[in-house]
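Good day; I would like, with your permission, to put a structural problem before you. What I wish to show you is a protein chain and, alongside it, a tokenised description of its three-dimensional fold. Thank you for your consideration; the sequence and its tokens are set out here:
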Amino acid sequence: MTRSYWQEELETMSRDDLQQLQLERLRNTISQASNSSYYRKVFKDNKISADDIRSLDDLNRLPFTTKDDLRSYYPYGFASIPLRQCVRIHSSSGTTGNPTVVLHSQKDIDLWANQVARCMYMVGLRDTDIFQNTSGYGMFTGGLGFQYGAEKLGALTVPAAAGNSKRQIKFIMDFGTTALHVIPSYATRLAEVFQEMNINPRTDTALRIFCMGAEPHSEEQRLRIEKLLGVKAYNCFGMSEMNGPGVAFECAEQNGLHIWEDYVIAEIIDPQTLQPVAEGETGELVLTTLQREAMPLIRYRTHDLTRFIPGNCPCGRTHSRIDRFKGRSDDMIILKGVNIFPVQVEKILMSFKELGGNYLITIETVHNNDEMLIEVELSDLFTDDYSVLERLSKKIVRQLKDELLITPRVKLISKGSLPVSEGKAVRVKDLRKF
């Protein structure tokens, strides 16, 4: 009989034992982090060392780490080992200016691969599967994270990378692909291309499991994908600052994402008061790494809004579950797996003298695909000649695509067309239903 767990002892250990393990690893993490210039200063300013950590509650004595801290100490201010012992840098898509970078040792990469393999095994993948990865490879962690996890699992991997749907489908058909890593919006696109090619994925392919993440999606969208493609689709969560994919993952019960507490300590706080919320209440997820060697992070504010799901999971795993994310506590937009900030859009728009200062970004779902529409007012001194406006619009789209890594729709409108709000301007409307 096939066992149900990748690492049964760790996945099902008692809460008391798990918290004791976390405490031991937290103390080691603080010792390791003190080798970095950033945390050396933090610990000195707060008069704390690993010896002062006697319970998990003592974590509250340390300040939060933010994305701005990572940018301020770019690129190597968080390094806790010599660079010669690091083997890789990954980077988030970030905003303008310095990106956030994460350093990895070979041990970090090996542990990350094991973490992702644990997630994949949990939803039923085995070494007999053929796993196709439709995520981008490079500085983005989604591609390589799943690649190494699948290889650790022993599956035959197809590193197809992103795009070219007909080529993806050819690989699925020719190689007998059984499992796919895909962002939700691209999964719906694949379903459309299957239909255009007169192929029924439910009967004409061996697909059975989708690992989905990198962008928000609703339960309704998940169910639609499962119905269209004849698969079970499992939600996953990761972020480059925490290695990448594999931080948390749904089990076969699909009733929340198990967050691997032997790898991280998870807190949920009120983003305004910065105090813990009651169990079951929604707040901002804060994470502390527990096994990272090259670049530990302590009390990192993710800005993702979620809650701990009370009670035990029927799967038998004792690691806490977090709910589907409800949004963000900052103004970041996640679209097609890319992190976008309104300031990136504004920087491009304001470089055109033909445009005014008012704009609105709308994120909406069109024919099962999430799209970005940017409405921007023209300067009152500019022409209304259609051909001139069309050339201008194409030029704006090209520059936005270079900056954002996605292609938005741009609508040029006359000055005064957009509403003016009192106080802080409303720059983003997200009409997607999560």
Q: What stands out?
A: The two ends are 38 Å apart (CA to CA). Residues 263 and 290 are 5 Å apart (CA to CA). The mean pLDDT is 90. The first helix runs from residue 8 to 11.
